[in-house]
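Structure record:
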Amino acid sequence: MHVREFIERNYPEYYSIERYPAERTAPFCKVDAPWGIFSNFGRTPLVIDGVAFDCSEKVFQVMKFADQVSRREIYLAKGQTMKMKAKHFEKAGTVRADWGEIIVDAMKFCIAEKYRQSAEFRQALEESRGLFIVEDQTSFHKQNPDTWGAKLSGDGTLYVGPNLMGRLLMELRDSGGQLRWSLPRDATLFQESLRV
């Protein structure tokens, strides 16, 4: 199943096509660009269950798997290689059986930890008040954005797309970091599989 199908089935309240006026957005795409800290690849180190992660994307990708081999290889990979490793293990069928049922809760956990542990991230969220946060996928080769982001319309006046990542970040900001999630206990236990 694709992310969109997981969301439509298990989190229908988070699947819709949204429209945001471009001049009122805080768009993020590249880590080194304005608002780049909102990216899951943003340089905000985290420590979860005593294990150090270099970014929230790595936490999210590791959570996708329950077996030690997949988790460890993804954890040790750098940058975008980490996502390629995760895709390899997805094709191999080692994704946790309940992933589609916990995917949004897993992302909420990751960004809430980022909020708790990174003053710079909290500050950027505060500075974005009054703006719509959008994961800008305009430069992506696909015609349409994926579930996590949105693309600029042809005339450049609107961002259009599901923008799940942006919506979760706005929810995090507007709740003062108080997101609710429900995860199986083993989803965030990393010491056994990731001890280096």
In short: The CA atoms of residues 68 and 151 lie 36 Å apart.
